[in-house]
Structure formats: C-alpha cells, structure tokens
Amino acid sequence: MGIFGRMKTLIKSNVNDIASKAEDPKKILDQLLLDMQEQLNAAKIQVRDTLADQKRLEKQYADAKKQAEDWEKKAMNAVRAGEDDLAREALARKSHYDEQAAAFQSSAEQQKGLVEDLKVSLKQLNTKIEEAKRKRNSLVARAQQVEAKQAMATTAQSMSGGNAFDEFERHAGKIDEFEIEVQAGAELSQTTKDQDLEAKFAKVDAMAGADDELAALKAKMGMK
C-alpha cells in the first residue's frame, strides 16, 4: 500500500469510536492527529521527489533535443563541405538523440500527470486533516461529557445499591426518636411539677380547714 493508500486508511478511522471507548480520548486523538501529520509529511516528500523526477526528465529531454539540433547543424556543415560521409555520421547521431528526446519527453509527460494527481490527493488529505483538527476539540468535549455521565450514573448506582440513602434515613429516624424522647421527658417533668404544686396547695387547704375546725371546737367548749 502506497503512502496515499495508508493515509486514506488513517483518515477513514472511526475517530468517534476511539473517542468514546478510549480511557484518555484527548491523548488518543492527539496521537492520531500526530500520526496523520507524519503521514502527510511523508506524502509531501513523495510528491516532491516525483516532481523532481519530472524536472529531471524534462531537462534530459531538453538536453537530448539540443544534441539532436547540434548534430543536424553539423550534418548541414558537412554537406556544404562536400563531406557526405561525415554528414551521414552526423545524421545518425541526430537520429540517436531524437529517439532519446522522444523517450524523455514521453516519460516527462507521464511524470507530470502523476505529479498533478498526487498534488490533488495531497490537497484533499491536507483538507481532511485540518477538518479532523477542528473536530478534535468537539470530540474531546463529547468524550468528557460521556465520562461525566458515566461517573454520575456509577455514583448514583453505588449510592442506591450500597444503602447510602437507607443509612441516611436510619440516622434521620434516630434523630426523630430522640426528639420525641426529649419532648416526652419535658412533658413528664412539667406534669410532675404541676402535681407537686397541687399537692402543696392541697396541704395548705387541709391545714386551713383544720384550723377552722379547731377554732369551732374551742368556741363550743367556751375556750378562746
């Protein structure tokens, strides 16, 4: 698989799934973006090397074409000088460089087409990476929200399943019972005080009655 094939596979990774399942989504996404950037840099190098090959082929084509033109001029000079044999040799050399120039030209045109395709692919990959970078913060935020919800659900479950609320209600019941006991004690104390007071007044009344009876008895007996 070429560099662009690997790059496309990397881009198509299910980033949302990674963010939702990873223990540290931010770390995973940052590493993924780093891998993407490294692959992109490698792809840029490949495009650069391919373009360099195109330029090299174009230069070889230009050199071969110039050689063909130079040998054609030499053939002409040989003809003017009456040197037909030299002219034939020069034309043979020209034909050789013409063939080289045609081969270099064809290769250069093919290389140019490949370079253009690679440039388009490189641009598309760069766009996807930039999109992934923009999406990264949103994915991290979503992952953190999921973690928060999971933590809350776990806490609620542990509280309901671990008798935390039952323990709370048990202590609340104890407080209610203590409050009732305090109120009952206060009422009992007040009742006792009231009874003691009534007893004292009853004693006073009894003594007052006894005094009246004693005075009546003394009066009956003619005593003061």
UniProtKB/TrEMBL annotation:
This is PspA/IM30 family protein. Keywords: Coiled coil. Belongs to the PspA/Vipp/IM30 family. It comes from Microvenator marinus. Residues 26-81, 108-149 form a coiled coil. InterPro entries: PspA_VIPP1. It comes from the Bacteria. PANTHER family: MEMBRANE-ASSOCIATED PROTEIN VIPP1, CHLOROPLASTIC (PTHR31088), PHAGE SHOCK PROTEIN A (PTHR31088:SF6).
